[in-house]
Design brief:
The chain is of the alpha/beta class and 199 residues long. It contains 9 helices and 7 strands, in the order βαβααββααββαααβα.
Length: 199
């Protein structure tokens, strides 16, 4: 097999994706985190700073991208999101490609909230979706205290629905309990190792 076996991990907001990614990391699987990649390209000197300065100069503060100012721009300009995505998505894809090219691990995991939305599911060997019931999801997100119910609804409206994600998954990891998720992660790793042996 050329290159690592690539697991794509995704799930809607509040479904337990970050916790599940940590379980894979604890099992020794290297993780590429899409949110962390965005953080890197938004940091001072990051790859997104100059392109964003050209279209939204007020979003650049102290040499980096200020997310609050970016949100203000997105809120007042209907074309802002498509402009932002045209800059950010290729840079994040480049960051991901670098990670895959530089790893010598036999198995890696891509932690991607927008795996389906940007078509990245076509470029992984196994699609893993984390899921729990809608009430647990809502309770988890609102307990963080970082967004209102209306903001949560707006985010959910933009994401591929959980039912569709589950229908398109190779594996579904239930995140109702940490124990259950941990067991499911162990089973996924065992399954991947078997597939690699038989490849």
């Amino acid at each position: 097999m050329n290159g690592p076996f690539v697991i794509g991990l995704t799930g809607s907001i509040g479904m337990g994706k970050s916790t599940t990614a940590k379980l894979f990391a604890e099992a020794g699987v290297p993780i590429w985190d899409a949110d962390a990649a965005v953080h890197r390209i938004y940091s001072p000197g990051g790859a997104a700073v100059q392109p964003l300065r050209a279209i939204c100069p007020e979003a650049i503060v102290d040499g980096g991208v200020d997310r609050d100012r970016l949100k203000e721009w997105l809120g007042r300009d209907d074309t802002a999101l498509s402009q932002l995505e045209a800059i950010v998505h290729p840079l994040v894809a480049e960051d991901r490609a670098t990670f895959l090219a530089e790893t010598d691990a036999p198995v890696v995991l891509l932690d991607m909230p927008l795996l389906f939305e940007i078509g990245a599911h076509d470029h992984v060997d196994l699609v893993v979706v984390v899921s729990t019931d809608a009430k647990t999801q809502r309770d988890r997100v609102l307990a963080r205290g970082t967004m209102t119910e209306a903001q949560l609804e707006a985010i959910l409206a933009k994401q591929v629905p959980d039912a569709e994600k589950r229908a398109r998954a190779d594996v579904i990891i239930p995140t109702d309990s940490l124990e259950g998720a941990s067991l499911a992660v162990s089973e996924v790793i065992a399954h991947v190792e078997e597939r690699r042996r038989n490849a």
